[in-house]
Fold this protein.
Amino acid sequence: MTRILVLANQKGGVGKTTTVLNLGAALAGQGRRVLLVDIDPQASLTALLGFDPYKIERSSYSLLMFDGMGLARALKTPRANLALIPGSVDLATAAIRLVQERHPLTRLRDALRESRMLFDTVLIDTPPGLNVLAVAGFLAAESVLIPAQCDHLAILGVRAIQDVVARVRDGLGNPDLNICGVLATFFDPQAVYAPKTLDELRALVPVLETVIPYDVHIADAPHQGKLVLDYAPDSPGAAAYRKLAAEVSAWDG
Ligand SMILES: Nc1ncnc2c1ncn2[C@@H]1O[C@H](COP(=O)(O)OP(=O)(O)OP(=O)(O)O)[C@@H](O)[C@H]1O
Ligand SMILES: [Mg+2]
């Protein structure tokens, strides 16, 4: 069964894109067929995988805006077992056009139906904020994974996502959407508030067992044009992403 996860948090810079990239690559390394979908106008995921968001001809923009666009025409394959629907800079206008021209927000969902025959896991990277592009991602997915830094704002962010999920379930036609969990990122075990915040989060939603530590190798890797899994495979950050991939794989038995 294909599992479609959307990674979202209204807060920016919490590790959404880093998690899509490294979780995706770690799952692919374990032999899973993985599709990454970039619906962020910043197109960081696309750039990190070596594609120029200014030069992409067919991107998630086409899937969001037009009916009947086949997946295959937009697919790139940057690594073995790892495919990408790239983002492009025109996604910035998609957010406006989708609303202004009253396009259905379900086109991405319809396009991703095709992915069920081709992939085991689909990871959708959303922009910060819970805007219309994020909602299109929520409509296309079964589960929301929330990367979050364990500070005092994390609780507010998770509550906001719970509200959006409730609305998407009840009013927008994705009744089975669930929150599969919060993933603690930039985790610093020395910060006394971090484990306390995790406990508070656990009272609201599931919290994944794996935590992603703050690790400078993760921040360094893009500067070397690499994933942390390749750049520093023995680093705590790379180990954490491999552990996360094992945890996510285990959900499917
Ligand atoms: N665990 C970590 N330790 C150290 N640096 C990290 C870690 N996770 C991510 N980073 C770095 O932090 C920055 C923000 O991460 P990332 O782009 O993944 O966040 P994001 O939530 O996708 O941001 P945005 O909301 O802008 O899309 C990047 O420079 C990334 O390399
Ligand atoms: Mg991002």
Remarks:
- DSSP finds eleven helices and eight strands in the chain.
